[in-house]
Specification:
The chain has 6 helices and 7 strands, in the order βαβαββαββαβαα. The protein is α/β, with parallel strands linked by helices and about 190 residues long. The protein has one domain (about 5-185): Maf protein. Strands 1, 2, 3, 4, 5, 6 and 7 form a 7-stranded mixed β-sheet that branches. Strand 3 and strand 4 form a beta hairpin. The longest helix has 19 residues, at about 45-60. It starts with 6 loop residues before the first strand and ends with a helix.
Length: about 190
């Protein structure tokens, strides 16, 4: 029997919703508005942790602390540079060009906020891409999949065919690390 608390999810991501369902967590969505601008000289890990914490805290405050709120954020990092969601096809192609044939990191941070505390975790997974041709980049864009994904790809979809291997959490790359999320929820005070 599941003893995890009912929560609010401060995310519009359908992938995070699906993954929470796998954990058998009872949840409702809460809409929040957080500025996702990276600060000058902010390290990637600090940035993604800050965003997850700000999302969770904004949701908790908005809900008057009635339930724990889960916030999460996922970024793709290569050569110390954060790759966001592509703005258009040329932007997506440029991202895939940088990732092609190389290793990069996917950082997912999760945070849970209550009136008493905010707890968070950061999970970093190394992802290695095979070489991707220009024709493959164009065809991938036309599937529509890269449009709303950090780094311009989704591991759980068609973009998975570009991935040679990963070292770390598959679910963190999708957007919500299952084990770590369950542990944070189970340890709430």
């Amino acid at each position: 029997m599941n003893h995890l608390p009912a929560i609010l999810l401060a995310s519009k991501s359908p992938r995070r919703q699906e993954l929470l369902t796998q954990l058998e967590v009872t949840f409702e969505l809460i809409a929040i508005d957080v500025d996702e601008t990276i600060m000058p000289n902010e390290a990637a890990a600090d940035y993604v942790l800050r965003l997850a914490r700000e999302k969770a805290q904004a949701g908790a405050q908005q809900a008057n602390y009635t339930r724990p709120v889960l916030g999460a954020d996922t970024i793709v990092v290569i050569d110390g540079k954060v790759l966001g969601k592509p703005k258009n096809q040329p932007d997506a192609a440029a991202m895939l060009t940088v990732l092609s044939g190389r290793s990069h990191q996917v950082m997912t941070s999760i945070a849970i906020a209550t009136e008493q505390q905010t707890v968070s975790d950061l999970i970093t997974t190394d992802v290695v891409f095979r070489t991707i041709s220009d024709d493959e980049k164009a065809a991938y864009w036309h599937t529509g999949e890269p449009c709303d994904k950090a780094g311009g790809y989704g591991i759980q979809g068609i973009g998975g065919k570009f991935i040679e291997r990963i070292n770390g959490s598959y679910y963190a790359v999708v957007g919500l690390p299952l084990m770590e999320t369950e542990q944070l929820l189970a340890n709430l005070k």
